[in-house]
Amino acid sequence: MFEPVKIAPSILSADFMNLGRDVALIEEAGAGYVHVDVMDGHFVPNLTMGVPVVKQLKKTTSLPLDVHLMISNPLEQLPWFLDAGADSVTVHAEVLDADGLARAVACIHAAGAKAAVSLKPRTPAGVLAPVIADVDMVLVMSVEPGFSGQSYIEGSEDKVARVVAMAASVGASPLVQVDGGIGAATAPFVAAAGADVLVCGNAVFAADDPARALAEVAAAADEARLAALAAQKEA
Ligand code: DX5
Ligand code: ZN
User: Fold this and answer.
1) How far is the CA of 149 from the centre of ligand 1 (A)?
2) Atom number of ligand 1 nearest to Cα 35
3) pTM for this entry
4) 157 pLDDT exceeds 90?
5) Per annotation, catalytic residue among 22, 37, 136, 196
6) Residue-wise DSSP of 42-54
7) Within 10 Å of residue 20's Cβ, how many Cβ atoms?
């Protein structure tokens, strides 16, 4: 059945001096989530925002807060983000073994939030095997994490398709989110491959008209999704 994609604008590209205004703008424009990129200067070279920003966001928006933890020690710090009001928390598979991934997912679920696991571009989908049946979402990175405004790595849609197939093989259907270099030109690739949630930083916030840009990405993705569904039916 056709489900429209959801757009998760990344506030890393927003105007931090007018963050409330920018979040209200994307809420009004129909965003599905607010994507919060937390970077620790260790797992990734960049340093961004943390718990106080999540707390403030929680007070100002009714959109779900989708917190992407690009940090080396998520097991220690993810409870802070859950307490601050994160609605979904994404941890990176590269910093946790199978046991650590299972503990992270259990901790997130115990707080009543949605659990997601992310893969860097060179991390194979196979590392998801121990938790694929338990996660609510898988985040496929389509750039090396660390900075907004990078170009989509061609072929990332193949990993989206692998994750969808892997989940289906165990009877699971987590949402699949894609993050990095997504705009109206690249959204169709990942949407056709089965992506449900698209993170957009620059494509939305660097546009002259962010609301229109958001709608354009969503429309391009939905068109590709519908075409892929129609092609599946014919096959
Ligand atoms: C990259 C972050 C992304 C990024 C997206 O490490 O996880 O969420 O800010 O920005 P764009 O859409 O500009 O690539
Ligand atoms: Zn992100």
Assistant:
1) 7
2) 8
3) 0.98
4) yes
5) 37
6) SSSS-B---HHHH
7) 13
